[in-house]
Amino acid sequence: MKFFWKYYFPALYGLAIYSTIRLLLDTVTGMKFWERPLWLNITEVLYCIVIAYLFIYSQRYLYRYFDSRWPDLKDHKKRLLRELTYVCLFSILFHNVFLVPLPALTDDGLQWFDVADVNVIPLLYALIYYGVSRSKTYLEAYVDNRTRLQQVMNDRLQAELKFLKAQLHPHFIFNALNTIYFQMDEDVSAAKKSVEQFSELLRYQLYDQQQTVSVRHEIQYLHSFINLQKVRASDKLQLDVHFDPELYDQQVYPLLLFPLVENAFKYVGGEYRLSIRATLKGNRICFTVENNIPGSHVPRKAGGIGLENLKRRLELLYTDKHTFTINKTENTFKVELSIPAVPVAYQIQEAE
Q1: 283 near 302, Cβ under 8 Å?
Q2: Which part of the chain is the Signal transduction histidine kinase internal region domain (predicted)?
Q3: Residue 192 belongs to what domain range?
């Protein structure tokens, strides 16, 4: 294909220009070109073909000049206008220099319609050739810019997700270490068990925040966290935990449910009731956490940065595919999260 465009196309281009000009001239003047001397027609055709090679190669040189002069395609409209201006001016100048003498030296000499045809017809062909030949360059540049933009967006989202993940750790680590510290004086074996649970929690937090895991792993993580929190919780705590076994074979992004549970343990008070429930409803995973709060003593923004981070992560990971609601009364604080259920088998099939 490259061989054709380089060696054969210019000849066809010149022949097309000559045929169009000849047709218009004969229509206007009533001349019949086949009645002219054969050598004259052949000479004109060969001349136009040679000029076409020179013009096409000059155009390609102009394109290389454009690419080197204006490599940035951000302002593509301005660049396109510049290129078209250069192409038009070059085409008019080139064809007036090389083609106008042709009708001036043949037939009945140079007429006004000769000048019009020699300027208009080649210019139209030059613009068509420009559109066809440059469309690939602009399309590749557009695709490249879109790819770069998408990569920048992905890098930004990954950085933001890592930042949000990092914010989960400090408060949780502080509380866990504080709990283990006081256990050391009262029950060493219990402290050892807490350390083991704590290490499991930290290990789970190393999961990539953009790679899904089975809900079974997420629930195991929550159980470890809940057991660790029971140690430091008040004896008044009335805990109700239910995880639907049908969820175990579903997929979810790690640590999405954790901020809800951590927030509930942090602010539970009043009658000290805390309910944690996860169920599978159709093709949705529904997670609900409800806890009593100590009336007017609860902070105005119960949950603080944890729930705000969760909202942002949900926007990044489940854009327009999740629901997240918060209902606060005088004595209770309830959050409900619903996200798409994706079976493990589907994930494996998609990866293959």
Answers
A1: no
A2: 159-237
A3: 187-351
